[in-house]
Amino acid sequence: MEVVCSNINGVRSIILMIMLCVIFWTTFSRSTGINSTSTDRLASMAFKHGINRDPLGVLSSWKDSIHYCRWTGVNCSHKHIDRVTSLLLRSYGLVGSLSPHIGNLTFLRLMDLENHSFHGEIPLELGGLFRLRVLELSNNSFEGTFPINLTKCSDLLYLHLINNKLQGKIPAEVGFLSKLLILGLSKNYFTGSIPASLGNLSSLLQLNLLKNNLEGRIPEELGRITNLTRLDLKYNKLTGTIPYSLYNLSALLAFDFMSNQLSGTVYPDIGLAFPRLIVLTIAHNRFTGPIPVSLSNACNLVTIQFQGNHFIGKVPWDLGMLDNAQFISMAGNQLGGSTTGDDLSFILSLVNCTQLQYLIFEDNSLRGSLPSIIANLSTQILFIDFGKNQIHGTVPSAIANLSNLQIFVMADNRLTGNIPPIIGKLHKLRALELFGNELSGRIPYSLGNLTLLSSLYLHENNLFSEIPPNLATSQNLLYLTVSNNNLNGSIPKEFFGLSSSLLFLYFSDNALTGLLPLDVGNMMNLVALNLSNNRLSGALPDTLAKCLMIEYLRLDRNFFHEEILTALQTL
Questions:
Q1: Mean pLDDT of the chain, nearest integer
Q2: Residue (of 405, 398, 386) closest to 422 by Cα position
Q3: 403 C-beta neighbours (distance < 10 Å), count
Q4: Which residue, 319, 442, 334, is CA-closest to 388?
Q5: Listed residue (415, 373, 372, 413) closest to 389, CA to CA
Q6: Per-residue b/e over 210-246, b at no fewer than 16 CB within 10 Å?
Q7: Reduced to 3 states, what is the DSSP secondary structure of residue 93?
Q8: Could you tell me which of 226, 276, 216 has the C-alpha nearest to residue 246?
Q9: Is the dihedral of CA 107, 112, 116, 122 positive or negative?
Q10: 61 and 51 in contact (C-beta within 8 Å)?
Q11: pLDDT of 318-375, one tens digit each?
Q12: What letter would DSSP give residue 255?
């Protein structure tokens, strides 16, 4: 997850300033004379004729009775009378193709056509717009290859072609655009390698290439772009190691390499190399070695995503020095496994992270007792996940202090003791996953107070006694699994109410008795029902056949005395 923060907003302010300056440079003179033979007028009309659909009527002012410099979205020069200098039409839902005659607007400095449904190729004629400073064509459906002639627009400062259907290779000639500050080619279908020539863009502040099909190694030459504040290469097929030269980019605020095939170790002094860093995402790669202890030196870090790699060793104990941290995920690695059983000592320092919202360490080898200090984490915390580790101890009652907690996962560990009833005070809780432990005692009735709860997973424990009927009162409950416990008594009829939202209901492998209520037919949304291996008896209700959405059904190993197939033949 990417967290927006003030420093990144500062970079966005720079982008906005570029566009405003270009508009200021190009606007505010409005000629009153009509020149019907004007090249710019004809080019603008050709643009309109390329539009097949104008749902908001934004082009309704584009007609002969109004001078084209007064048309919506058109600005003309105060110096060169009647020459169009900016075309600013953003988010009007236009459908059509971009006329090649747009290349005749030779005084054009800014073109913003973001958020439309333009299709076809980007005209090569745009290469003739030698005064162009800003080109924003993101969020359309442009096809074909990168328009090579754009590399002739040597004054370009801002080039965004994000979220289109462009394909082929990124041409090396893009490196000729030496004045570029912002380059965004993300969310297309570009293939091949990242051109080494991009290292010539010495003024570049942002390089966004995410969500393409780029492959090969990251060019060493990118380390020459010393003004770079954002380097976003995530969701590609890049291989090899992170070039050492990139650690010279000390101005970086965002370093996004997630979901590639990168390998090797992470530079031990990464926190010293990037002192201004806010976003560090290298998740879902093939990195090995320890988590760099220098991370705490990057004191502005807000987002850290290291999940889905092969990191080993201890989690740095001083992560708590990252006062601004909001999102920390190191799930799916091989962290921990110490013989001393103190792999969770780092949690103590995280108490200092007063803005922390996400703490995710699922699927590692962390050992040790769950520290009660976890209940002293930031009251802003929304998500805690330490599932699938080797953690023992009990769930601290003080966990109720985390009043904003929405997701709490401690599944597949070695926890013992009772589920603290005070958890029922976590009124914002949406998912509680404690399955696969050695918890005992009753299921707390207080869980029925969690009206926002959508997922409750308590299976594979040693819970006993009856299932609290008020668990069914939550209108948001979708998934309830209490299988493989020692629960007894009958199935509360409340679960089969007319307003039931349940999709998955798993009560198997317990000691439940009694009848299956007739009201089971009310569960119109039910997709999976597992009641197998209990002591249920009596006739199987015909109403079960009303559960037309059901895809998975287990009723075996009970004492139903009616042939199951007879009751279910209409399903």
A1: 92
A2: 398
A3: 12
A4: 334
A5: 413
A6: bbbebeeebbebbbbbeebbbbbbbbbebeeebeeeb
A7: coil
A8: 226
A9: positive
A10: no
A11: 999 999 999 999 999 999 988 888 999 999 999 999 999 999 999 999 999 999 999 9
A12: E
H/E segment holding residue 271: helix 270-273
Q: Give, as one character, the DSSP assignment of residue 184.
A: E
* CA-based nearest residue to 299, from 5, 33, 1, 2: 5
Please list, residue by residue across 332-367, b when 16 or more beta carbons sit within 10 angstroms of its beta carbon and e when fewer do: bbebbbeeeeebbebbebbebbebbbbbbbbbbebb
Q: Identify the CA nearest to 386 among candidates 452, 335, 312.
A: 335
Question: Residue 34 has what pLDDT?
Answer: 40
Nearest to 234 by CA among 253, 214, 259: 259
SS (H, E, C) 533-565: CCEEEECCCHHHHHCCCCCEEECCCCEECCCHH
User: What are the phi and psi torsion angles at 310 (to 5°)?
Assistant: -130, 40
Strand partners, 365: 336
Q: Among 56-65, 294-303, 365-374, 495-504, whose mean pLDDT is lowest?
A: 495-504
Q: What does DSSP say about strands 141-143 and 167-169: parallel, antiparallel, or unpaired?
A: unpaired
- Single-letter amino acid code for the residue at 22: V
* Distance, CA of 556 to CA of 564 (rounded, Å): 9
Q: Cα 253 to the chain's mean position, in Å?
A: 18
Amino acid of residue 191: T
**C-alpha angle 546/551/555, rounded to 5°?**
75
Q: How many CB atoms lie within 10 A of CB 427?
A: 13
Give the Å distances, CA to CA, from 254 to 239, 261, 304. 20, 19, 10
Cα–Cα distance, 253 to 228 (Å, whole number): 8
pLDDT value at residue 571: 57
Give, rounded to a whole angstrom, the gap between the first and last alpha carbons of the chain: 42
Distances 455 to 4, 380, 421, 565 between C-alpha atoms, Å: 29, 21, 17, 31
